[in-house]
Amino acid sequence: MRITCTQENFSRGLAIVSGVAGRNINLPILNNVLLQSDKEGLTLVTTNLEIGIRTRVRGKTEEEGSFTIQAKLLTEFVGSLKKENINLYLKENTLTLEGENHTTKIKGELAADFPLIPEISEDNVVLLATEEFKKALSQVVFSASSDESRPELNSVLFELEGKNLTLVATDSYRLSERKVALGQNIKESLVLIVPVRTIQQLLRVLELDQTEETKMIISENQIKFSFGSTEIISRIVEGQYPDYKQIIPKKFSSEISFDSGLLAQNIKTTSLFCQPGINDIKMSYLPETKEIQLRAQNSTAGDNLSKIEAETTGQLGEIVFNYRYLLEGINHLDGNKGILRLNEASSPALLQSQDNKEFVYLIMPIRQ
């Protein structure tokens, strides 16, 4: 193995793949990055057996070969170098990196021991506009459960039908749904559950390897996202996703139109007086005075009442929310104007943007 590449390209490639390599005591080689040099350049691969990431780095190959090196060490070392050409060559299970003013030798492990990343046949391929897809993912992934004992909720639901992709995530306290228009018609409806860790890695890597189009390839138990010079392969979660559609109300008795920035700021202010661990804010909506009121109080800090002008129609009432959940929903709305639709104090409320109805955020109230 002998190849020359630029520090900038090598460092960027390592940043892309290093996210899934961690400290694995039972299988230490999973802490490594696989380096493969061939006539087309250098390929970098990491995996945690659930997610695999592969990216290509341009380089001039003199001798083909492969080797694995601890990902964290190599990423930090290459990232610390100045922009220069780096010569890499392998000798006696040691990778040597040479620059203008340094020669560094790093020990590693044989590539034969590194787990293979599965290949997926391209029978089901979906093309997505990267920026729209990235934004849609960011609008739902934060609602997924962090409880790994419930893998179907520690995931994002993908529903493909006709010319639409619907993304859904929920932790049972709030739910995000985002529809994405596809450029092609899906021949067969597909429903799959993708682990939240995969989506988090996908969003991270899409920021580093920016491209206009993302290709999504779906098999029976795996999914691959391909864009630019990078591929992310992940398992699909087995199981049944909850029937989320039945909990979304069809009708509402009240509606509030508000300035997103103004409401978000007042929620932050009022939240300073919430009861610790409960994060409760009481929202009163008053159609006659065209306003909403936010209130929080606790015996230690005191209390706060904020009044905000808002176009309020329907019945007056009050409801108690976890302010963190409400604030996260508002922060993910498109544009400056939002709509909050409500029923009685024990029913879920629906949050949307006035500009983009493709994103729906459902939030359960705190029952008093």
Provide a descriptive summary of the structure in words.
The protein is of the alpha+beta class. Helix content is 18%, strand content 43%. It folds into 3 domains: 2-113, DNA Polymerase III, Chain A, domain 2; 124-244, DNA Polymerase III, Chain A, domain 2, CATH 3.10.150; 249-363, DNA Polymerase III, subunit A, domain 2 (DNA Polymerase III, Chain A, domain 2). It is built from 6 helices and 26 strands. α1 packs antiparallel against α2 (71-80) and α5 (260-271) packs antiparallel against α6. The longest helix has 13 residues, at 196-208.
First-last Cα distance:
67 Å
Number of strands: 26
In the CATH classification, which architecture of the largest domain applies?
Roll
| CATH class category name of the largest domain | Alpha Beta
Fourth-level CATH superfamily of the largest domain: DNA Polymerase III, subunit A, domain 2
Helical residues, percent:
10-25%
Strand order of the largest sheet: 14-11-12-13-26-25-24-18-22
Strand content: 35-45%
For the record, the count of structural domains works out to 3
Largest sheet geometry = 9 strands, antiparallel
Q: What name does CATH use for the topology of the largest domain?
A: DNA Polymerase III, Chain A, domain 2
- The number of helical segments is 6
Radius of gyration equals 25 Å
- Structural class call reads alpha+beta
User: Overall mean pLDDT score?
Assistant: 94
Low-confidence stretches: none
